[in-house]
Amino acid sequence: MFAGVRQTWKRLIDGQCGIVSIKDRSAEFALLPSQVAALVPEGQRAEGKWNPKEHLSPADERRMARFAQYAMVASGEALNDAGWLPKKEEDLEVTGVYLGSGIGSLDEVYNTTLAYEKGGYRKVSPLFVPRLLINLAAGHVSMRYGFKGPNHAATTACTTGAHSIGDASRLIQFGDADVMVAGGAESCVHPLAISGFARARSLATEWNDRPTESSRPFDRDRDGFVIGEGAGVVVLEEFEHAKNRGAKIYAEVAGYGLSSDAYHMTAPREDGQGPHLAMKHALRHAGLKPGDVDYINAHATSTMLGDAAENRAIKELLLGEGGKSKASEINVSSTKGAIGHLLGAAGSVEAIFTVLGMHHNVLPPTLNLSNPGDPADEFDCNYVANAAQQQVTNVALSNSFGFGGTNASLCFRKL
């Protein structure tokens, strides 16, 4: 995955994959059962890669954990694209920030724990807690730009990015802000994190020698998700406020649905009831029917149970009352085949892909989809396998689900 939305979007639509081998990063990585990850490549900004020194002062680089650095740079890109860099006090007071993370700075905890065990109190950095706190991503963005509106953070596992955008949209609806910078960031590609997910049997382990083929949403040979890192940030704005200043508008957040599986810590309900309720509520808020949905960006992480449950939920909703006449009319894809699973950043990054797909009337592909699902699960929708498709898209859903059974669905509508 490249740094910057334009490079990332182009690579996605071109069918390129950002997943690489991490076996040679260290001896610890080489011993893990899953040795693939979607990394933000390090290098020069001109090449679309990540170098914190090109974006941050030395002081800011010290103060911010990597996930917060990603959030800061992504926020800057979003604000510049929106043309919203206010200086007037009245504008600063109505601009807020809502940025979350699923895990945050795990390496900070790990390294500080080792240092403390060896040297005690004096080996703990005074920046330890500020770098650790998930809400500091939003805090740093607020401080850099002087935004004095709501300063908030969600941490709801892999639903974080979607919750951040949905919650921020409601802060605008309730009049708490006119503009919100919203999204998620994650950077925890660490041996400890991978060990934990692997022990929970969540990660892909059968494709270590073929990293670009390892994330296989909806495919019969899928065997787990591929951990990724990055950030996705959008600028949300009250419609009249945006229109009056001549802002570039990509889409409307038309609906936002939330639900709980109320079932298990890590496994989804096989019947997909939670995702179904989230999508149903998103369409209800938008005042739309299932048949109005042109595209769904699925959460589909490449796990056996999760992909099947979501597929079941999508078909139940979109083939139900007011829906499509046959499964082949349902356009659904998972961009995790290209970028892996960004955990707390997944929902916001995938919301951006959904909106860009609407803007350009193109459906992003599901990479590595050779044999959809299992016949018993009836994987018979259009999963946009391996190559992008041109499709007029006026209404789209973007789904995100997380450990603990938390679900969210964002409904976007073209204006």
From TrEMBL:
Entries under InterPro entries matching the protein: 3-oxoacyl-ACP_synth-2, Beta-ketoacyl_synthase, Ketoacyl_synth_AS, Ketoacyl_synth_C, Ketoacyl_synth_N, PKS_Beta-ketoAc_synthase_dom, Thiolase-like
Molecular-function GO term, any one: 3-oxoacyl-[acyl-carrier-protein] synthase activity
Keyword field contains Acyltransferase: yes
Keywords, ordered alphabetically: Acyltransferase, Fatty acid biosynthesis, Fatty acid metabolism, Lipid biosynthesis, Lipid metabolism, Transferase
SMART domains hit by this protein: PKS_KS
Pathway(s) this gene product operates in, as recorded in its UniProt entry: Lipid metabolism; fatty acid biosynthesis
Span of domain Ketosynthase family 3 (KS3): 1-414
Protein name: 3-oxoacyl-[acyl-carrier-protein] synthase
Origin species: Clathrospora elynae
Organism ancestry: Eukaryota, Fungi, Dikarya, Ascomycota, Pezizomycotina
